[in-house]
Each structure stands twice: as C-alpha cells, then as structure tokens.
Amino acid sequence: MIYDDFAHHPTAVAETLAGLRASQPEGRIWAVFEPRSASSCRRVFQKDFAAAFDAADEIVIAAVYRSSLPEQERLSAPELVADLKSRGKAARYIADIDDIIATISRERRAGDAIVIMSNGGFGGIHRRMLETLQA
Asked: Which pLDDT belongs to residue 13?
C-alpha cells in the first residue's frame, strides 16, 4: 500500500502515522517525508518533527525543498535523522528521489505500507514508486 499525504507540520505527520498504525498494527510503516512547505523547511519545528515519526518503523527524510533558506533558519535533515536515531528509530537521509525509490524497492516486505508526505509534487515520486513496485 502506498499512501499520499499532505502532512507538512509535526502534528499532521504524527496524526497521519498514528491513524495508519491503528489500522495496521502488524505491518511496517515507511514514512517518506519531503520538507517542502514554508514552515516545514524551517528550523522552528526541528525537534518537534523527531517526535512526530514515532509510529513509523522506517523513516526516510528527503532533501529540504527550500534549500535557499539561510542555514541557521533551514531545517537540518541530517540533524533530524540523528534525533530520530537517538529515539531508537530506523531513519536515514536520502536526498535523491531515485535513491529513495531504489532503497524502498530493495528493502520493502510484504505487508509494508509506504506513506509519502509532502505538500507538493515531490518529483513525481508517487507514480514512480508505484510503477517500480508493480514491475
């Protein structure tokens, strides 16, 4: 199962993943997050995002969409991954969409759910992921 979700705020991410976990208590949940919205690209939610992924089993953080923001204002994907790992989560930063698709395609198991979270097109990952997994 592949889900497309608009989650762009820590509360939205947490609620989406908690709802999916409630409906799928046994299977693994992959959370693929593209920080894209004006707020999710900013450091203001850096720590809140780490807690938001608690219901996920595998977490992929993609490149921050608004990379032109000054570094001190921009969400740090590597720092978010480090925070997730310190919470005991399997998390990784994968900037390239082709690499995200290849990783999930290679590591997924029967019964896994994949939640793609972005408030934009995310490089066509939704269609491309589906086509790859169906092949």
From this structure: 96
pTM of the predicted model as reported, rounded to 2 decimal places = 0.94
User: In what order do the strands lie in the sheet containing 2-5?
Assistant: 2-5, 113-117, 29-33, 58-61, 90-93
Residue among 14, 65, 19, 71 at smallest CA distance from 40: 65
What topology is assigned to 2-134 in CATH?
Protein-Tyrosine Phosphatase; Chain A (3.90.190)
Torsion over CA of 116, 8, 60 and 15, rounded to 10 degrees? -80
What is the domain partition of the chain in residue ranges?
2-134
CA 4 from chain centre, in angstroms, equals 11
**Who contacts 60 (Cβ-Cβ below 8 Å, separation ≥6)?**
30, 31, 32, 33, 91, 92, 93, 94, 100, 103, 104
Res 84 pLDDT > 90: yes
- What DSSP character marks residue 81? H
